[in-house]
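step: validate -> pass
step: tokenize input -> pass
step: predict -> running
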Amino acid sequence: MKIYLQILIILLFSFVGEILSDALHLPIPGSIIGMILLFLALQTGLLKVKQVDTVGNFMLNNMTILFLPAGVGILAKWPLISHFWWQIVVIILVALIVNVFILGKVTEFIKVKFEGDYLPPELTSQQIALDVLNQHTRNKIDRGEL
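step: predict -> pass
step: emit ->
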């Protein structure tokens, strides 16, 4: 019964999002609006995580299956899309590069801000490699191998 209730809660938020999207003629899909509403309900405490935890984890663990309808839809519309395949590939590659760059910078900022910078800026990878080699040589000398 617990799982059915959790599915009902998640589907209810999706349904409300669809109604808002249609009623207000928004260019945002109703499922996205539903996810935003679910997020806001969880953040404000109107809904507790344990009320959707089991089904939410199941959906996250099986997310690839949920993308299948989108892939089938793309293949169904392939005659319309095929004329623009190279533009789509360029857009995907540019978006990928921009996302990786931004993600790297955000991760670097968070690491430095919350964990501290572990290496002084003047240390380069070459200097670190030389320090490791020097330490290795000193260890061999101490053991009498050199």
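step: describe -> The radius of gyration is 26 Å.
step: cleanup -> pass
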